[in-house]
Structure prediction request, 80 residues.
Amino acid sequence: ITHYNDEHLNRVVKKNTGLSIMKHAKKLKIKHAMDLLARTDMTISDISNAIGFTSESHFYRFFKENLQQSPDQFRQAKKL
Prediction:
């Protein structure tokens, strides 16, 4: 637990990353998902849980909205 307020933390993160906390967190989740999909044989469900999603369908929507392809399509493209 930190003793900083949300606005201060957001300013610090934005200064260092150029992104808001939410956008930075989203970027990190996508990067982690892409890494797990490309480098492991974990199921989509296990990856979804590992990244912190409570619903596999929400993970699919999140991934597709951000990368314009499903996790399955991404994994298949990386195997080629």
